[in-house]
Amino acid sequence: MAFDSLRSLGAKPPFVNQLPEGPYYGVLAEFASPADLYQACERVRDEGFTRWDAHTPFPVHGLEKAMGIRRSPLPWIVLAAGLTGAIGGFGLQWWVHASAYPLVISGKPFFSWPAFIPITFELGVLFAAFGAVFGMLGLNRLPMHHHPLFKSKVFERVTDDAFFISIESWDPKFDASATRKLLTSLGARSVELLES
Amino acid sequence: MISNEQATIPPGHSWNRIPVIGAACAVLGVVGCAVLGPGNPKQFFFSWLMAYLFFLSLALGALFFTLFMYACQGGWGIVVRRMCETVFATIPVMAVLFVPLLLGLQNLYPWSVPGAAEQDALLRWKSPFLNVPFFLIRAAIYYACWSFIALFYYRLSRGQDATGDPAISARLRKFAGPAIIVLALTSTFASIDWIVSLTPHWYSTMFGVYFFAGSFIGFIALLSVLVPAMRGAGLLDTVITAEHLHDLGKFLFAFTAFWAYIGFSQFFLIWYANLPEESFWFKARLEGSWEIVSLLLMAGHFGVPFFYLMGRDVKRNGLTLAVGGIWLLAMHFVDIYWQVMPTLHPEGIRPSVLDVAAFLAVGGCFVAAVGWLMRRQALVPLRDPRLDESLAFENA
Q1: Where are the domains of chain B?
Q2: Strands of the A52-55 sheet, one edge to the other
Q3: pLDDT digits (tens, 9 = 90+) for A79-104
Q4: How far apart are CA A128 and CA A135, in angstroms?
Q5: DSSP notation for A68-129
Q6: What do you get for the CA distance between the two ends of chain B, in Å?
Q7: Do A106 and B264 touch (CB under 8 A)?
Q8: Cβ-contact B208, B239 below 8 angstroms
Q9: Chain B interface, Cβ < 8 Å to A
Q10: With b meaning 16 or more CB within 10 Å and e meaning fewer, what string describes B288-319?
Q11: Which candidate, A120, A119, A99, places its Cα nearest to that of A110?
C-alpha cells in the first residue's frame, strides 16, 4: 500500500528491483522432463539468447552448462568486501589506538598489532558474508515484489513436476511469434505469452 | 570400474625406482650422521628429531585425513585414499626411526638429565609426568595405538581390493570415530612429550591442536604434490580428474587459514597475558634471526598461499596446485624447524650439515617405504563400493 502511494507520486520504492517496461514480459514454455528441458536449453543457448532462464522443481545437474551460464562475479565481490572489512577494521584500530586516542594498555606499545587481529579477522569475515548475501541478492535482482511469471497458471507446477524456460521480451533476439515457434519446435508441452 | 592394469605401476616405469632412490638417500644420510654425529651429538639429536617429526607428522596427517573421510562418509576422495593409506602405513617405520632419539634423550630433554629435578622446583613438580620410564611407556603406547590403527585400516582396505566386500567399508567407518579420539589424544600427548618438553618449563594448552594443524596441512600439501606428479608420470591420469585436484586445493586453502588461526591463537593469548613461564618460548623466537623465521611463517605459511590458493583455476590445474603443495610442504618444514631448533641455537639460525644428513636419512626411509608399497599394490581402492561415486565426482 505504502509503495502504491509512493508510485502514484512517481517515486521508486527503495531497494526494490523492477523489470524493464514493456507490453510483454516474455514467453514461457513448459517441458515434460529434465531431459527435454536440458536439450531445449542447449538450443536456446546456441540461438544466442541472453536474457532468459530455466525453472525446475529440483536442481538439474549440469543445467548451467546447457544454459551457457558464465561464472558468477560474486567471488570478486566477496573478496573486495572481505578485504574492505579487514583493512577497515585494522585501520580503525590503528587510528584509534596509535593516533586519535592513545592509551597505555597493560604496558604494551600503542600500535600493538596482535591485539588488532581478532577484530580485523571478524570484520573481514562479516563483510565477506555481507558481500556474499547482498551481492547474491543484487546479482539476482532481488528483492522484487512481484514477478510476471506468477501470473501464469501452469507455472504453479514449477515446484511440483513441470520444467520451464522463460525468454524475456527485452532480449535482443526476442520476437513474440518466432520465439514461440522456436520453443514449440523444441518440444514444449505448452507455450504462452506473458504480459508485463 | 577400473582395471588392475590402470591402477598399478607398469613394469619398467620410472617410479619403480623410487624405493632404490629412497634407500640410497637413506644410506647417504645415515653415513653422514655416523661420520659427523659423534663430533656434535647435541646437533645430531636435534637434527634427527626435526627430520623425524616432519615425516611423522605427514604420516599422522594422512591417518587423520583417512579417518575423517570414513567418519563423514566422504565420497570424492576415495580415488586418493590409497595414497593416504600408503603414507600412514609407514608409521611402523617411523617407530624404528624414533629409536635413535632414545640414545640421546639427555641431549634433547633437560628434564631427563639425572639430578635436574633436584635443582629446579618446576621440574620437580612436573617429574611425575616428565621422567624417563614414563616417557618410554608413553612412546610405546603412542606407537602401539598408531600402528594398530594404521595397519588395521591399511590391511582391511587392501583386503577389500580382493573381495569387494562392502561390510569392510561399514566396519572401517564404525571404527573411525573412536579412532579419531584415540589419535587426537595420542598425537597431542606425543607433541607435548617430543616438542614442548624440549623446554620443560613451558606451558601451552593449544600445542596439540597446533601440531595437528601442521600435520594435516603438511599431508594435504604432500598429496597435492604427489597426485599431480603421479598424473604427470602417467599413473591414474585417467582416474583422477581436475575435480579431485580442486577438492585437494580447497583443503589446502582452508587449512592455511586453520593453521594460522590456531598458531595465532596460541601466540595471542601468551603475548597478551605476558606471563614469564609462557612468553619466554615466543621471546626466543622473536629475537635475532629467529624473528625472520617467525615473520616468514606468517607470510609464507599463511599470507602468500592463502591468496595464491584462493582462485578456482589455481586449484584445478595440476601444476599450479603442485607449486602450492611444494611451497606449503617447505613451510611445514620451516614450522617444525622453528619449533625445535631455537632451543638448541637461541643465538640465531645455525644451519648444519647434520640437518641435511638427518633429513636424508629419515626422508629416504620414508620415501623408500612409500615407493615400495606403491609397487606392491593398486594405487586406488579398486573395489571400494563407492569408487564409482568418487570417479564421477564433480564440484557443483
Answers
A1: 26-115+132-391
A2: A52-55, A163-168, A24-31, A190-195
A3: 999 999 999 999 999 999 999 999 99
A4: 10
A5: TPPPPSHHHHHHHHHHHHHHHHHHHHHIIIIIIS----TT--S--HHHHHHHHHHHHHHHHH
A6: 23
A7: no
A8: no
A9: 264, 267-268, 271-272, 274, 310, 312, 394, 396
A10: eebeebbeebeebbbebbbebbeeeebbbbbe
A11: A99
Q: Could you state, in chain order, the average pLDDT of each consecutive group of 10 residues for chain B (396 residues)?
A: 84 94 97 95 97 98 97 92 97 97 95 90 93 97 98 96 93 97 97 96 94 98 97 91 96 97 96 93 95 97 97 95 98 98 95 97 98 94 91 83
For residues A176 and A7, the answer to whether their CB atoms sit within 8 Å is no
Which residue's entry shows cell 584500530? Answer: A93
Is the CB of residue A117 less than 8 Å away from at least one CB of chain B?
yes
Q: Which of B272, B294, B306 is the mutation pick for testing A, counting most A CBs within 10 A? A: B272
Contact with chain B for residue A125, Cβ under 8 A: no
Taking an 8 Å cut-off on Cβ atoms, the answer to whether A106 and B271 are in contact is no
Q: Chain B closest CA to A94's CA: distance in Å?
A: 17
Residue of A nearest to B273 (CA): A106
Q: What is the ipTM of this complex?
A: 0.85
> Are the beta carbons of B272 and A118 separated by less than 8 Å?
no
Q: Compute the distance between CA of residue B40 and CA of residue A56 in angstroms, rounded to an integer.
A: 72
Region A24-57+161-195: CATH code: 3.30.70
Subunit contact A114:B310, Cβ cutoff 8 A = no
Domain ranges of chain A: 24-57+161-195, 74-139
